[in-house]
Amino acid sequence: MGTSDLDRQIEQLKRCEPLTEAEVKALCLKAMEILVEESNVQRVDAPVTICGDIHGQFYDMKELFKVGGDCPKTNYLFLGDFVDRGFYSVETFLLLLALKVRYPDRITLIRGNHESRQITQVYGFYDECLRKYGSVNIRVIDRKQEVPHDGAMCDLLWSDPEDAVDGWGLSPRGAGFLFGGNVVSSFNHTNNIDYICRAHQLVMEGFKWMFNNKIVTVWSAPNYCYRCGNVAAILELDENLNKQFRVFEAAPHESRGVPAKRPAPDYFL
Amino acid sequence: MAKAAEAWDGPTAAELKAAGAEAIPGGVRVKGWVIQTHKGPILNSASLQLFEDKLQTTHLPEMVFGESFLSLQHAQTGIRLNFNPLDALKAWKQEALPPVEVPAAAKWKFRSKPSDQVILDYDYTFTTPYCGSDAVVQSTETMQTSLDESSNLCWEDTEDRIDLVALSAKEPILFYDEVILYEDELADNGISFLTARVRVMPTAWFLLLRFWLRVDGVLMRLRDTRVYCCFGSDEAKPVVLRECCWREATFASLSAKGYPSDSAAYGDPNLIAHKLPLVMQKTQKLKLPN
């Protein structure tokens, strides 16, 4: 697959037009080659722009690129949860994947908990693949494996910060850890880092600091599920690691494929 | 949600006129009733803080549409029915069901854990027995989104039933809307939401307040409240019926009956409500204030 092919595919995907199944397969194979070479702890150099959840909101991701600049001009780090919920998980994920293959050093994709077979089957990506391709083969997003219910991988993908505890908490669901301010402080100290930047939780203002600026949540899906009315944010770090949050709103209705709907009356009982 | 000309343009002027109704912002005025909805965004940090203070908890659904409501007011009697997230969450807090363990919890129990671990035990499913707020309001100008818990209205048990045959007639719809009051994705372990839907026809209004919960692999819970008012001959004495219907089933019991046990099969509560055994059902009639 040459760069001219790739550039054509990227242009096509930017118009929200999906690729053929053969193209998807080739792209996934290539992406797999690149991703398996990456380490579990990925080093990313500044300047870089950090992005949170996208959830298949393709036209809103285009707003993101408008605000943050195009790849490869801007370096990007995506914190996962590219798929599910929105209408265009396929196009969203393929565009990011194509950018990864085209500019491997300019964009880093890490995996969110939605990039797993079990979750996508419930929340939309799986069905969208079936609808658009008639089959599903999303093995490429497996970091060599599905997410287990135990161990570090599970903890990384399913733990959240929690105001109500200082140390560790167990979720009322009986699975999943919660961590408080003390845990974050000592983690930051041990690893000699200034703060943790994470995604995964919806925040109305697009980003939210917790525990005296020791951890920040970045959320990049504006008007989540097309009804929450929230703004989104990305975090730009310059070469000196100076932070700037860029807040953006959802793409205007005219620019997205789907018309705004007034709920059709329904003789519900 | 933005409105578009597509799908449904609302009732025609002729339909409204024939019913003696009048379209008003976000609603309709008909037969002495003013029926309105409002849809706002999810809580921002400041309003979230207000909710947390009022409810005395830091654990709220991920999406609380704090300003959204459905309201039905009857001018002559001062009856005001209102469906809003704050009162619904007050009822959740009060019921305080024990948490539901997800399937992964079984394995989690055998893991090594930090010694100073705190176990949180609030009801993260946000199950609520809420069936609406009501009050007698002297002036219809008073617009408060949350009503006092001390309600002035009284509901009495009745043998009357909501007239489903009449409701099945395809009368023109003068006003229709659906309002989400709150929603939570249970950290991707399923779904929990509370919505209110309303439709107003020339002969009646009807609403459905629905709490729906699916904890993947564990259980499904449906708590429906239907309220119905058939416009009678005497506009000063409306008859309002309320039916509460609670259903619940575990995934285990469904699969024992031969139903599918994967969550993907249970996306739409409408399609499976009848498969869930009845837990509670009662019908009440609104006692008119003096």
UniProtKB/TrEMBL annotation, chain A:
Keywords for this protein: Cytoplasm, Hydrolase, Manganese, Metal-binding
Keyword Metal-binding included in the entry's annotation: yes
Enzyme Commission number, as recorded: 3.1.3.16
Cytoplasm as UniProt keyword: yes
A Pfam family annotated for this UniProt entry: Metallophos
InterPro entries in alphabetical order: Calcineurin-like_PHP, Metallo-depent_PP-like, PPA2-like, Ser/Thr-sp_prot-phosphatase
One MF term in the entry's GO annotations: protein serine/threonine phosphatase activity
Annotated Serine/threonine specific protein phosphatases domain residues: 110-115
UniProt catalytic activity: O-phospho-L-threonyl-[protein] + H2O = L-threonyl-[protein] + phosphate
Compartment(s) where it occurs, according to its Swiss-Prot or TrEMBL record: Cytoplasm
GO cellular-component term (any): cytoplasm
Family classification: Belongs to the PPP phosphatase family. PP-2A subfamily.
Name listed for the protein in its UniProt record: Serine/threonine-protein phosphatase
Taxonomic lineage: Eukaryota, Viridiplantae, Streptophyta, Embryophyta, Tracheophyta
From TrEMBL, chain B:
Protein name per the record: TIP41-like protein
Leader peptide range in chain numbering: none
Coiled-coil ranges from the UniProt annotation: none
Gene Ontology terms: cellular component: cytosol
GO biological process: TOR signaling
InterPro entries on file: Phosphatase_reg/MetRdx, TIP41-like
Top-level taxonomic group: Eukaryota
Organism of this sequence: Oryza punctata
Protein family according to the UniProt entry: Belongs to the TIP41 family.
